[in-house]
């Protein structure tokens, strides 16, 4: 095997990117069982060229994961502009250019693995920042465990989204923009009601629970005693 460090021609870089992007779309549509031959056919190249650029299907998947995470970071940066009105998830899920990326992420969440964990961690970190800012601004009540609350909010949102897709699957998981807009339209009112007006009329269940487990450690626990 040659180990020289010669630069790769621009045409090779372009071919590599085209194969990677086609693989992301194919995996989003059909899942990660799709083969290299299918991906090669989508691009109009030979399976040998796919192997030339990536070496194996696992390495192609790794390249896809890395590119998707880079796109997520871009979406996170853009969502800061309208963070006051939309969550990162809503910004990401309803932006047309991220539709295929979202389909790939959902496949990854179902499949598990590093990308799924990284994506969820990104969202939990974002939620903790947004909720912390809301608490500081007096728009949200503090929690006994801000990290745990942010994790719950994130997993609840993702769980509802994935269950909705499972029960009423769209025709094409690589084109989810319309589906996601309907999903957010359906959940916005009940979500805002729960967050704004609450659900229970007394705190008896919380008091009983705290008598059993006590306040969790944290700087906010004393604020609720």
UniProtKB/TrEMBL annotation:
The keyword DNA-binding applies. Residues 13-72 form the HTH tetR-type domain. Pfam families: TetR_C_25, TetR_N. Residues 35-54 bind DNA. SUPFAM superfamilies: Homeodomain-like (SSF46689). InterPro entries: Homeodomain-like_sf, HTH-type_TetR-like_transc_reg, HTH_TetR, TetR_C_25. Keywords: DNA-binding. PANTHER family: HTH-TYPE TRANSCRIPTIONAL DUAL REGULATOR CECR, HTH-TYPE TRANSCRIPTIONAL REGULATOR RUTR. This is TetR family transcriptional regulator.
